[in-house]
């Protein structure tokens, strides 16, 4: 009796090959031929599951982001049944930092996508209208829903991420800076000790 094909598993297997190539050498290395070789499947299978190379890259990114969201939800759930907004926000922001191998790998892949989006207007245009869900979530967790603070926190976490990936900032210092900003926002400037 023929074995049932798990199409979601096949798509994920192909996507992880894209991620490995992207993390190792950027998305320029993620050609149809190289992804097929990395995944150990025929090139026509990539086209069957994803279509064009552009669709393959965006499909792999979508799976990567969904995995990241699922892990973030698990970490938030681990905070307990009724976490405070500050605890949830801290967990969300720490998810953006390479604090373990899984997050580091995911963020290296996302950095490769960032570089590609900067150079490829077609890909950039296809994601331009993606809803800013993370910014909206952060704003909802902030006192008075401050969108300016949400944008600042997200940009700050992205900057810390890059500095950590380059080895210019330790994990401890990055977490300390996140906590400093959260203290400022949730407890007022007095909680930061008055320093800038």
Short description:
With 196 residues, the protein is an all-alpha fold. 72% of the residues lie in helices and 0% in strands.
Low-confidence stretches: 189-196
Q: How many independent structural domains?
A: 1
| Total number of beta strands | 0
What's the CATH first level? Mainly Alpha
Judged by helices, strands and strand pairing, the structural class is: mainly alpha
Distance between the termini: 69 Å
Relevant CATH superfamily: Tetracycline Repressor, domain 2
Annotated CATH architecture: Orthogonal Bundle
Shape: elongated
Under CATH, the topology can be stated as Tetracycline Repressor, domain 2
Number of helices: 10
Mean pLDDT: 89
What value does the Rg take, in angstroms? 19 Å
Helix percent band: over 70%
Q: The biggest beta sheet, please?
A: none
């Amino acid at each position: 009796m023929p074995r049932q094909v798990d199409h979601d598993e096949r798509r994920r297997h192909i996507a992880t090959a894209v991620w490995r190539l992207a993390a190792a050498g950027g998305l320029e290395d993620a050609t149809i031929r190289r992804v097929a070789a990395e995944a150990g499947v025929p090139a026509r299978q990539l086209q069957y599951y994803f279509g064009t190379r552009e669709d393959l890259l965006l499909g792999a990114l979508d799976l990567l982001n969904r995995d990241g969201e699922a892990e973030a939800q698990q970490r938030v759930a681990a905070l307990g049944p009724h976490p405070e907004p500050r605890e949830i926000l801290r967990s969300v922001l720490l998810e953006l930092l390479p604090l373990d191998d899984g997050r580091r790998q995911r963020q290296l892949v996302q950095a490769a996508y960032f570089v590609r989006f900067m150079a490829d207007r077609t890909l950039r245009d296809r994601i331009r209208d993606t809803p800013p869900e993370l910014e909206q979530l952060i704003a909802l967790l902030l006192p008075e829903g401050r969108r300016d603070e949400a944008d600042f926190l997200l940009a700050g976490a992205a900057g810390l991420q890059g500095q950590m990936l380059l080895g210019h900032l330790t994990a401890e210092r990055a977490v300390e800076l996140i906590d400093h900003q959260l203290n400022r926002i949730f407890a007022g400037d007095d909680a930061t000790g008055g320093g800038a």
